[in-house]
Amino acid sequence: MCFTFNGRCVEAFLGETVAAALYAAGFYVFRNRVPGGEGVFCMIGKCSSCLVTVNGVPNIRACREPVRKGIVVETGVDRPRVPPVFKGYLPPLEKVKTDVLVVGAGPAGLSAAIAAARAGLNVLLVEEHARAGGQLIKQTHKFFGSGKLFGGLRGFQIAEHLVKQAREAGVRLLLDASAYGWFRGGVVGVASRERRYEVKYKAMVVSTGAHERFLVFPGNMLPGVMGAGAAQTLMNEYGIKPGEKALIVGAGNVGLIVAYQLLQAGVRVAAVLEVMDEIGGWFVHAAKLRRYGVPILTGHTIVSAHGEGKVEGVVIAPLKGGLKKTVSCDLVLLAVGLTPDARLLAQMGAEMRWVPELGGLVPARNEYMETSIPGVYVAGDAGGIEEATTAILTGRIAGLSAAIYVLGQEDKLLREREEALRALESCRVTRFSERVRRGHLRAAR
Amino acid sequence: MLRGPVAVAECPEEIPCNVCASKCPSNAVKVEGLRGKPKIDWERCTGCGVCVGFCPGLAFFVVDLSKSPALVTVPHEFLPRPEPGLKVSLLSRDGKRVGKGRVVKVFEVNKTLVVTVEVPRELAMEVRAVWVD
Q1: Which of A73, A57, A79, A431 is nearest to A280 (CA)?
Q2: Which uninterrupted H or E stretch holds A401?
């Protein structure tokens, strides 16, 4: 099918987003906010780098907008006018009542929804993307863990399992819909493309994930500088080669894993830079890269990126003095950590705390994942950055807690929650865990 | 290793993972709790290579020094797929091309190829990857 971008015809596949189709067609500038324009950064609807105008409506996230035949897409402009189409137009409203509302269908949200639905409750799971599974759907590597659970499965396979379990448990899954705010009377506003919903719930789980951190250096707004996860979205979700030669900033597990996936996609990896003296991620992930000759430069940082219209190279430097070096590349991936996204809870008035060990601003909660608002729970990275297994377990705990809040202290639910708490403890035993545990103590209420 | 193929684990950190132990058909790999490092019982291990395909860290290999040239089995997740008979580049742990070797066997575990390749004996403890040029 075809749509137009600034008057030019762009070929696209059904199921692609506007951002993916444009990138595949070689269009890298999405928004004119800075001189030279901006490219994509997060590719998951969390940032504002890819805001374009679609059929005259400004500020549309290209990374969430599905391609449709004949739509008219234009480069996003800075501070657009309110389009006349909005005047007096409101999509139809549906009032929904549910026992448990879960916001965000990543590993945490799916697990929470499954736990609550299996307890016999009516569960509505709202997800702003067109597919459920969160960031698992673009994880093509195999996950660590117990061989009896999901250990050894690839991330997207874990997502498939969870989605299947949620459907079997009777969870109502509302895709392509955003929970945009909480309103008087305990109502959450949800908007899909065609419909508005006012959701009244008895208990709620917020599992809205995290977003990738940006890094400050000259040239960081050049198209081609993006989050490591954005490259994963392009290549692993849409089968689009994100570049020819990449430089990765950050040798934590995300940086190491994405570097390996780039090699698999046929992208050369110039180097993985790490500002610390030691590689942050697991030895085995680093060893995988080293076998294929990718240099991992510890004690190095990025100084600047340069290029005309798209990144063409970067300057890197050792931290402890020494010569700067220019590296040619058309892709710079930032893998410098994640920040929890719990803005919905903040808007609801939940007590928030700044906890660096958990990645930033997180809701205060007790060990059952209950926030300062009774009956409202947090799960997964929205409560502090960890990984998929712990997200699944905090999700299960939050879902069971929500069920206990609605149904009362049923023995079976209490027992299952204790089991999940023990499983969570047994996962928090790595060299990353001490910091996380400290963070959880600081966030505890 | 001198008597026949056995698994070798290069998994030096305590990762909460026991996939190797739970998938070993000979019950030859033990992981204490969920986080212990894998311990391989070479009396039980048959060198079948199932662990090479299952290990999420791609940290298992099989080495067989009973033959000449030696045989090394490595995980491989790249296209094109190496087929038996094909000569491939042998890569050391730090990515150096240290020679060429003939592929003798390939099987697949959840999209990971388990590739057995002929390796000069003196390189059997160096070669940990292959590349189809």
Answers
A1: A431
A2: helix A388-407
pTM of the model: 0.96
Query: In chain A, which residues have their Cβ closer than 8 Å to the Cβ of B34?
Result: 146, 426-427, 429
pLDDT in tens, A405-440: 999 999 999 999 999 999 999 888 888 899 999 999
Helices marked H in A141-297 — which ranges? 155-168, 228-232, 238, 253-264, 283-290
| Cα-based distances in Å from A421 to A174, A359, A397 | 29, 22, 7
CB proximity under 8 Å: A 271-300 to B: 282-285, 287-288, 290-294
B35 chain-A contacts, CB cut-off 8 A:
429-430
Q: How far apart are CA A60 and CA A331, in angstroms?
A: 24
**How far apart are alpha carbons A326 and A167 in whole angstroms?**
51
pLDDT digits (tens, 9 = 90+) for A84-117: 766 667 889 999 999 999 999 999 999 999 999 9
**For chain A, what's the residue count?**
445
* Among candidate residues A265, A269, A268, A247, the one with its CA nearest the CA of residue A141: A265
* Collapsed DSSP state (helix, strand, coil) of residue B43: coil
Q: What is the pLDDT of residues A353-396, one digit of tens each?
A: 999 999 999 999 999 999 999 999 999 999 999 999 999 999 99
b/e burial code for range A403-442 (CB count within 10 A of at least 16 → b): bbbbbeeeeebeebbeebbebbeebbbbebbeebeebbeb
Kindly report the backbone phi and psi dihedral angles of residue A157, in degrees, each rounded to the nearest multiple of 5, phi listed first: -70, -35
pLDDT in tens, A47-72: 999 999 999 999 999 999 999 999 99
The whole-chain average pLDDT of chain A stands at: 96
User: Which string of DSSP letters, residue by residue, matches B49-79?
Assistant: -HHHHH-TT--EEEEE-SSSSEEEEEEE--S
